[in-house]
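TA notes, week 10

Several of you asked for a full example with nothing omitted. So below is the full record: structure tokens for the whole chain, then the designed sequence directly under it. When grading your own attempts, check the secondary structure regions first.
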């Protein structure tokens, strides 16, 4: 019996059922190869059901007798004779080379160990039947259809086949800028060792193909994100589709609806107000639109709904239309006017004093005006000189004299005054006028706005960087900066949707602050910070490393902000209201200067203040004084009689 012993076992081969042995002879578990029991009766091997064991069936357990008195012997691999019967015990091993995937070929190494055996054994290898001769070693190539490998009724250790879809590699690249409702080309490559059905969802559009394939398709983004499915689904990383047009400012007043739009496309848009449609012309950048409201105006504010359609993108918004406002005060060309529903008239401080109103105000007196190539993107003041970025050109002006000019290959997007005049161009270069002429390459991502500091400068757009002597000292991601940053202490304050504070020396992000509206402009002096945006302006105080809102006021669009040299007041350029507003540090609006054209840039240095316009005009004012307008009766602004 191959050297196996059965201690105290009384065994009579072929004996009756009453033969007893209460011990089971043990052998290493690796010898167990068959789940069936076989009995020796009259020299023949039969199974538990009394049937003759067929050729090809293999066993490892041989049972003598039956019932509680039976004895089970565990036999090692090989050929054994037990009471005249021949039993072959096969030990089969399987080794899978590689990772088995369903429906993909894999190599399996099989080995049979059965000393002295004569019969073959059939192995079920992942669903394919393979005949293995005694003591044979062979490699077979099979395509898995079931998860197991079996030999002689026993499951062999084998790795579970994985889904073939796990081998699928899908690359998706959006070619261009994805805009909601506008076609965009998408490159799709699906790699797979075997043909398989792939279903893709890209921005809400279903694409179907049989991998492997490679193609470029045109989709119209309807929603963000995407996924790919081949048996199982997984998410795709796609750039978020942008709105082709964002409404960044909206105001309804006296039967008119005024909009400030940020457009990423050129073409036509449709504005629907209370069922009446208006066609708008769009260009890339900021676009102003004004339409009449078809609804009869009633006293007090009335909410209406407007819908903007661009391509297939639809954006809805509500706005309050106001009844005629109360009388307000305006300063035009240094004169004070009372403006009301019946028109405007000039008034004197003495007349207002009788009504209990203390009146004086900022007196911005016009010094000179120039007409340049439209539009003016940026201005800066340095003593009696004014630098202007207009279309492709940079100008240094002194009243009616042009001191110097420079031309860039793209649009001049910003100018700032330091030791020299720095002009930023959309071609990724800064052109410097002053001690000669030179250019500094800043590259893309920095080409929208800049702030000079001595002989160095900070350039920003999606990133901000500090540049000195043709070297970039640092760069940092900020979001989207449209107007100049401001410098306070060791911090660079960037208006990038929120107020982002960077270390001026290293670019490390120090803090960020959301005042409750998108920040598009910033001005700062002596720990006082003023921010502007669509519909709101606010004064902030810096306490330690925390921004605190001192007050907040409503405006149309605070596009540019500048602090008085002594930090006693702030000027804000309201693009939507076509005006220049001055606030004292208590939040009182001390005066407002109205313009016929849309103002686009402003800078205040010393007693001079320059304003640039989209029609190419530049106006330079001398600011006389900054005081407040308030009522003795209420402490707030009060209207005089018309």
């Amino acid at each position: 019996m191959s050297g196996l012993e059965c201690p105290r076992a009384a065994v009579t081969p072929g004996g009756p059922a009453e033969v007893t042995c209460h011990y089971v002879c043990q052998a290493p578990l690796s010898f167990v190869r068959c789940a069936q029991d076989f009995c020796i009766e009259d020299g023949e091997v039969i199974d538990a059901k009394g049937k003759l064991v067929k050729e090809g069936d293999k066993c490892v357990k041989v049972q003598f007798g039956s019932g509680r008195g039976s004895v089970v012997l565990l036999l090692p691999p090989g050929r054994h004779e037990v009471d005249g019967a021949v039993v072959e015990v096969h030990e089969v091993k399987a080794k899978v080379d590689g990772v088995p995937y369903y429906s993909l070929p894999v190599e399996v190494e099989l080995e049979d160990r059965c000393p002295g055996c004569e019969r073959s054994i059939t192995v079920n290898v992942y669903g394919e039947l393979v005949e293995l001769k005694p003591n044979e070693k062979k490699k077979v190539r099979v395509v898995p259809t079931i998860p197991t490998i079996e030999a002689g009724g026993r499951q062999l250790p084998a790795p579970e086949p994985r889904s073939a879809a796990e081998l699928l590699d899908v690359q998706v690249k959006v070619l261009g800028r994805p805009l909601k409702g506008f076609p965009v080309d998408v490159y799709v490559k699906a790699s797979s060792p075997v043909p398989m059905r792939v279903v893709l969802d890209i921005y809400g559009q279903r694409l179907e193909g049989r991998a492997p394939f490679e193609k470029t398709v045109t989709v119209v983004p309807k929603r963000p994100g995407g996924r790919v499915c081949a048996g199982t689904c997984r998410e795709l990383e796609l750039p978020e589709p942008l709105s082709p047009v964002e409404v960044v400012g909206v105001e309804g007043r006296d039967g008119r609806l005024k909009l400030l739009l940020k457009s990423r496309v050129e073409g036509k848009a449709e504005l629907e107000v209370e069922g009446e449609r208006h066609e708008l012309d769009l260009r890339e950048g900021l676009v102003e639109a004004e339409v009449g409201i078809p609804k009869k105006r009633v006293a007090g504010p009335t909410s209406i709904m407007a819908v903007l359609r661009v391509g297939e993108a639809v954006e809805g918004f509500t706005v309050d239309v106001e009844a005629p406002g109360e009388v307000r005060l305006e300063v035009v060309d240094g004169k004070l006017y009372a403006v009301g529903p019946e028109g405007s008239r000039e008034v004197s401080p003495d007349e207002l004093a009788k009504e209990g109103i203390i009146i004086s105000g900022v007196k911005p007196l016009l010094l000179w005006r120039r007409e340049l190539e439209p539009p003016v993107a940026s201005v800066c003041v340095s003593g009696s000189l004014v630098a202007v970025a207009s279309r492709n050109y940079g100008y240094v002006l002194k009243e009616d004299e042009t001191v110097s000019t420079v031309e860039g290959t793209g649009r001049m997007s910003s100018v700032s005054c330091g030791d020299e005049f720095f002009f930023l161009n959309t071609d990724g270069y800064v052109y410097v006028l002053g001690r000669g002429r030179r250019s500094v390459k800043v590259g893309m991502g920095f080409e929208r706005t800049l702030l000079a500091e001595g002989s160095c400068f900070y350039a920003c757009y999606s990133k901000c960087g500090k540049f000195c002597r043709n070297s970039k000292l640092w760069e940092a991601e900020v979001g989207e900066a449209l107007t100049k940053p401001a410098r306070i202490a060791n911090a660079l304050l960037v208006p990038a949707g929120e107020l982002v504070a960077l270390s001026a020396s290293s670019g490390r992000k120090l803090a960020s602050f959301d005042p409750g509206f998108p920040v598009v402009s910033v001005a700062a002096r002596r720990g006082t910070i003023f921010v502007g945006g669509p519909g709101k302006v606010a004064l902030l105080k810096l306490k330690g490393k925390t921004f605190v809102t001192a007050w907040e006021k409503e405006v149309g669009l605070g596009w540019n902000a500048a602090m008085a040299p002594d930090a006693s007041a702030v000027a804000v350029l309201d693009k939507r209201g076509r005006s220049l507003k001055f606030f004292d540090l208590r939040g009182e609006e001390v005066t407002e200067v109205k313009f016929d054209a849309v103002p686009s840039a402003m800078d205040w240095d010393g007693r001079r203040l320059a304003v640039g316009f989209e029609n190419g005009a530049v106006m330079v004012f001398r600011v006389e004084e900054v005081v407040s307008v308030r009522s003795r009766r209420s402490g707030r602004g009060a209207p005089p009689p018309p």
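The longest strand covers residues 546-563. Use that as a sanity check on your answer.
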